[in-house]
Design brief:
- With 300 residues, the protein is an alpha+beta fold.
- It has one domain (11-283).
- 34% of the residues lie in helices and 13% in strands.
- It has helices at residues 11-25, 53-62, 69-76, 98-105, 113-139, 169-175, 221-225, 230-234, 247-253, 257-266; strands at residues 44-49, 88-95, 144-145, 155-158, 162-165, 180-181, 187-188, 195-202, 240-241, 244-245.
- β9 and β10 form a beta hairpin.
- The protein is globular and about 55 Å long.
- 43% of the residues are buried.
- Mean pLDDT is 92; it is low at 296-300.
Length: 300
């Protein structure tokens, strides 16, 4: 792909407008229910550099199979000879709407139907957003790739952490100044923890977003102040304790016969049999549901 002769004058504003316009206008941003409810509210966007040392730390910490930005970029464009410092990771946060959060806040053992639909149809919209951002960049002459859409993207087992993958949207968002991790492993962002995430790696120069934290648990009240732990109480699987998040218990609960039976009885037939059911109770009715908590206050 030929490089653009005249760079975009304000790439940050251009990218943010591209992402926000898609979520605001695209019919893909839908729960595909009878009311045609929206899946996502207005996104947040952040940026980090391809040579940010954090990406090498992620690789060393998670497992050797975890990609750095330059690894997935050069795998996609083997003739580009791109250097890490030429790359920018574009990351975004898609907040659940107030309606979806309110529905899930009332649940105790199983997700609300709107939440389940956001996990399926909302994430489908997120996949289309990733492809849209790549297409817009490439049409403008910038090589770009969405790591989780790559044929080689896969979920693997980390020796240290168990279930993992070759690219982590949460870690990319953390590196891009968008939030820190909570006790349940979710990312606490300025829009809270009831979110989904996406990212694209591009050969374009955009200044990094300032990381307003020095610790990967800075926004979690449990780690920062020794308080809260509300997500422990919210987990019907007992998968969250003071020791952290047990991924095996979490995944097992969502595959049990009783969970499946509830879904089949209460949800629309168009989402039955999906492998993407999410519970999300630990992301709602907690102090960090919709914000960065400043004190151990009660959830809404």
């Amino acid at each position: 792909m030929p490089k653009r002769d005249t760079p975009v004058e304000n790439p940050r504003a251009w990218i943010e407008a591209t992402i926000k316009d898609f979520i605001a206008r695209s019919p893909e941003n839908s729960l595909s229910n009878e009311a045609n409810d929206r899946a996502w509210a207005e996104p947040l966007v952040g940026y980090s550099q391809g040579d940010d040392p954090l990406y090498q730390e992620f690789k060393e910490h998670i497992d050797s199979f975890h990609w750095t930005p330059v690894e997935i970029f050069t795998d996609t464009f083997p003739s580009s000879k791109a250097r890490p410092e030429e790359l920018t990771v574009i990351s975004w946060v898609l907040p659940h709407t107030d309606t979806i959060k309110a529905d899930n806040r009332r649940q105790k053992d199983y997700p609300a139907e709107r939440w389940a639909r956001a996990r399926i149809y909302g994430e489908s919209a997120n996949e289309k957003l990733r492809a849209h951002v790549v297409r817009v960049l490439q049409d403008a002459g910038y090589e770009a790739v969405a790591p989780v859409l790559c044929p080689r993207f896969e979920r693997k087992m980390s020796e240290r952490y168990g279930a993992a993958s070759t690219w982590s949207e949460r870690h990319a968002a953390y590196a891009s100044g968008l939030g820190t991790f909570g006790l349940c492993d979710g990312l606490i962002t300025p829009k809270g923890k009831a979110v989904r995430l996406g990212s694209v790696v591009a050969r374009i120069k955009i200044p990094s977003t300032l990381r307003r934290y020095n610790d990967h648990h800075a926004y979690c009240l449990f780690f920062a102040e020794g308080t809260c732990g509300k997500c422990i109480e919210r987990c019907p699987a007992g998968a969250i304790t003071e020791a952290g998040h047990d991924k095996v218990k979490c995944i097992h609960y969502r595959k049990t016969a009783v969970f499946t039976r509830y879904v089949e009885t209460h949800f629309g037939s168009d989402i039955l049999g999906s492998p993407r059911y999410g519970c999300g109770l630990c992301q709602t009715k907690i102090p960090c549901e919709s914000k960065i908590p400043s004190r151990p206050d009660d959830a809404q």
